[in-house]
């Protein structure tokens, strides 16, 4: 994507501009967070845990709230990107955070390219290797097209609505037993094994949270005077993502509840084929491909934005670095040729990085040179600290569980 910047209007009272910015950022976050990785992770884990998967989906809603509300408020009010906040909190830490997030973005892009390849496989039957190469070419072209950032913002809005309609249709046509599902969301039959799916689907969505936060700075929706608009953007993004997340689980579990077993080569697509027939299968392939391409471009922009303020050579040649990032991750995806495993692994890696990022952002709330006289709500601080502690503590056991379940 080309450099995603736009000047804010001179008056912060321009509600028309704010509303457009809020919707663009909210849909960009939602469609990037509920991308190919999240779709596949939800399908794979629902296939494994059945009705108990309702609990991770329910729990992830509260975790999403804690992450987005903390991250977006501090980034937006400070007007600083995540890596620059970390450098202010602890000199040199911005390099650690920026590089960690960039490495996480590599994992995300492996997943995004894999998702696009799976979508093309559904649409045309082409092998995922060729699909990944085609995705890389299209992603690079989008970066050199004039006004690509504006087109991607528009695509994110329309794609988000399209995705909600399609997933809602499948969910309604194969609705699972709602009473039992609601009970499992609060009291699962075996809660001990649900930490891995909970944190992995959170990790599979955080790319959208980071992208939305960085985008606040780019469009000029920043400063204490804009805290109301920042909160609205966060609430809108969370709401859209949550609706898609719940409907997706109901759609997949509704199919599985009939006794169906999902095909392991592309479980998310197979759930839609069994739930909505060949037409639904084809439409899902289209949604998966377009969502993945959107995520490839948006994630590449996000990855480079995380290091461009740290390394001047990157800032001077931003477009070239973005194209290079897509080429490297596309070739890496082709070399490994394990699309489902890569989509699952991306969520795990980013759930491990997240506590470091969130801890740095929370520490910034105590620094007047970063947030001025802004007072961060205590309930958000407490929620954020709990997320940091739980996700950090769970990281080691999650690695072991993941290796056993998917690589054993």
Can you describe what's shown?
This protein is mainly alpha-helical and 408 residues long. The protein is built from 17 helices and no strands. The model is unreliable at 1-13 (pLDDT under 50).
Question: Secondary structure elements and their pairing?
Answer:
Layout: H1 15-33, H2 36-49, H3 54-78, H4 82-89, H5 93-124, H6 128-144, H7 148-173, H8 178-186, H9 195-203, H10 206-219, H11 227-256, H12 267-305, H13 312-316, H14 318-336, H15 339-363, H16 368-371, H17 378-406
Helix pairs in contact: 1-7, 1-10, 1-11, 2-9, 2-11, 2-12, 2-15, 3-8, 3-9, 3-10, 3-11, 3-17, 4-5, 4-15, 5-6, 5-12, 5-14, 5-15, 6-12, 6-14, 7-11, 7-12, 9-15, 10-12, 11-12, 12-14, 15-17
Order of helices and strands: HHHHHHHHHHHHHHHHH
Q: Calculate Rg over CA atoms.
A: 20 Å
Structural class: mainly alpha
How large is the count of helical segments?
17
Assembly of the depicted chains: single chain
Rounded mean pLDDT is: 82
Give the helix level as a range of percent. Answer: over 70%
List how many beta strands DSSP finds: 0
Descriptive labels:
408 residues, mainly alpha, disordered N terminus
Entry summary:
With 408 residues, the chain is an all-alpha fold. The protein has helices spanning 15-33, 36-49, 54-78, 82-89, 93-124, 128-144, 148-173, 178-186, 195-203, 206-219, 227-256, 267-305, 312-316, 318-336, 339-363, 368-371, 378-406.
């Amino acid at each position: 994507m080309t450099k995603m910047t736009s000047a804010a209007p001179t008056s912060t009272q321009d509600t028309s501009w704010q509303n457009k910015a809020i919707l663009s950022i909210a849909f960009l976050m939602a469609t990037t967070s509920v991308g190919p990785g999240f779709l596949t992770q939800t399908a794979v884990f629902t296939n494994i845990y059945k009705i108990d998967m309702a609990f991770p989906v329910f729990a992830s809603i509260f975790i999403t709230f804690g992450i987005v509300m903390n991250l977006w408020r501090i980034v937006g009010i400070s007007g600083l990107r995540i890596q620059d906040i970390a450098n202010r909190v602890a000199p040199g830490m911005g390099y650690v955070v920026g590089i960690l997030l960039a490495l996480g973005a590599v994992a995300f892009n492996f997943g995004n390219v894999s998702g696009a390849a799976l979508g093309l496989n559904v649409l045309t039957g082409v092998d995922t290797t060729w699909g990944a190469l085609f995705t890389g070419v299209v992603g690079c072209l989008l970066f050199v097209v004039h006004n690509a950032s504006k087109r991607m913002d528009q695509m994110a809005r329309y794609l988000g609505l399209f995705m909600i309609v399609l997933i809602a249709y499948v969910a309604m046509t194969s609705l699972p037993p709602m009473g039992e599902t609601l009970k499992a969301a609060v009291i699962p039959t075996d809660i001990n094994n649900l930490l891995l799916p909970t944190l992995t689907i959170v990790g599979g969505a955080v790319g959208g949270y980071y992208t939305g936060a960085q985008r606040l700075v780019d469009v000029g929706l920043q400063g204490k005077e804009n805290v109301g608009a920042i909160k609205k953007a966060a609430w809108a993004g969370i709401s859209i993502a949550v609706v898609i997340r719940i409907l997706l689980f109901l759609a997949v579990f509704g199919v599985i509840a009939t006794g169906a077993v999902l095909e392991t080569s592309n479980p998310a697509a197979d759930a839609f084929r069994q739930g909505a027939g060949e037409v639904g299968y084809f439409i899902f392939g289209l949604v998966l491909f377009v969502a993945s391409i959107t995520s490839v471009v948006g994630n590449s922009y996000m990855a480079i934005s995380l290091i461009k303020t740290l390394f001047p050579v990157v800032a001077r040649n931003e477009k070239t670095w973005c194209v290079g990032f897509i080429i490297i991750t596309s070739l890496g995806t082709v070399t490994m040729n394990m699309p489902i495993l890569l989509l699952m692994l991306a969520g795990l890696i980013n759930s491990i990085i997240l506590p470091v990022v969130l801890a740095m952002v929370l520490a910034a709330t105590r620094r007047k040179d970063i947030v001025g006289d802004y007072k961060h709500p205590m309930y958000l601080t407490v929620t954020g600290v709990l997320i940091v502690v739980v996700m950090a503590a769970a990281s080691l056991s999650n690695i072991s569980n993941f290796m056993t379940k998917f690589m054993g």
